[in-house]
Amino acid sequence: MKLTALSVSELIAAFRSPSPTPGGGSASALAGAVGAALLAMVAAMPSRRASSADDVSQLQSAATRCGALSDALLVLVDRDSEAYDAVVAAYRLPKASDDEKAVRKAGIQTAMTKAAETPLETMRQAAEALGTAPLIGRLGNANAASDVVVAVELLLAAARGARANVEINLESLDDSAFVARLRGEVAQLDRLCSAVASGLSRKDA
To answer: 128 with 69: CB under 8 angstroms?
Structure first.
């Protein structure tokens, strides 16, 4: 059964269990899904601060986009666990002969590549949702200001948790060009997320 088909209490129990999945990658995606959903909610609320038709249009677009990003992040809750389950299965492949060792090594590399790419996608989606926060915070309903703060914190947690998962999985990969490319994108996304959060903090101060 998919994690996202579980009740909230069942999902928490799954995270609490000693099984390696669901783990931090799925938790990061879930945090991002909730954060993006909160931004979608605030953007969809009537707001006196949206004083022009253009303001209203921008909020509506942000609500639609954040809703889509929340859905995408929810998909990644399951996808991340599936990716790590594939890693575990690859490590369990037989290794008695040289041929088996070669097949096992190739399987591990393939699975680890997917396990690195999946949390990177979580980072991308979380960063994009974060990018809407300044607009929503500025034009959205003032009574929901704390919801924007919570959304930003959840999306930051999603991005940073996903980053940790990307980085640890890259350590097991032999393709140096692929590793360098993903590390470069991770650094870029991390800077973007930090800049958005810093800008919002300065505004609050």
So the answer is: yes
Q: Tokens 């099984």: give the residue.
A: 19
Closest CA to 198 of 132, 139, 134, 123: 134
* pTM score of the predicted model: 0.94
Distance spanning both ends of the chain, measured CA to CA:
46
How many CB atoms lie under 10 A from the CB of residue 113?
20
- How far apart, in whole angstroms, are the C-alpha atoms of residue 105 and residue 126? 32
Residue-wise pLDDT for 35-46, tens only, equals: 999 999 999 999
Per-residue pLDDT of 46-71, as tens digits, reads 999 999 999 999 999 999 999 999 99
Quote the CA–CA distance of 188 and 185 in Å, as a whole number: 5
Specify the 3-state DSSP secondary structure of 174: coil
Q: CA–CA separation, 56 vs 43, rounded Å?
A: 9
Phi, psi of 91 (to 5 degrees): -65, -20
167 confidence band (pLDDT: 50, 70, 90): very high
